[in-house]
Please model this.
Amino acid sequence: MKAQIAIQDDSIEAIVCQIQAGNKPLQHKLLQAYKPFIAKCTSEVCKRYIDPYRDDEFSIGLFAFYEAINYYSLEKGKSFLAFARLIIHRKTIDYIRKQSKHTKVSSLDDLVNDQEKMESPFEIVAASRAFQLEQDTWHRKQEINHFCEQLLAYKFSLQELIQVAPKHKDARRSAMEIGYLLYNDDSLKWYVRQKKQLPMKLLAQKVRVSKKTLERNRKYILAIFIILDNDFLYLSEYIIANLQTGDLCMDKNM
Model:
């Protein structure tokens, strides 16, 4: 990919930093070189081939890649391409959702204007909801697959996580709060990203649970951190929805 850009032998992160510093010609070269990557990312969301010259979704992905260049920060500790992939996915999902809503409204308008195509409005709404559910299910599965890959980087699996998940609500809630603490503390976040493990000594000073409890719930806490750190759209919503009730329980069929 670097050869395609035809610039000095820098990492893409270094190239992005040069662009952010004002090198606009380099930005154009980067956008051109990574069009296949952008098309691939949008295709992952749309579940079909995306033609860069015909499909509107590619334009959405291209603009998302441009936004990723502007907003990327080395301090976040994430590779640029991982960050860009996340932004492209989110923008494409948002676009599909908006188009889906527009299609539903158009269908209802056609229903009123065309007697020959008259169907029950309830059927149309139900079909629209079924389509949205299908889309959400597919995207959730993609996130879970990516989540499983991240778990392996921390040297445990989803099956192991399910087996060791705290059984009591209070324990799950406590572990979840610790996961949030890790994510919101820059020094602890850096440690977890670099070491792929909990900073036991530092963490013990900031929480009211024992090191033994931290160790027992280690994988569950790390799982919460991974979800938050990767900006998973669906899994994050699941955590937030259960924050107050303490009902969070990881499940492979979630």
Observations:
- The CA atoms of residues 14 and 23 lie 12 Å apart.
- The radius of gyration is 22 Å.
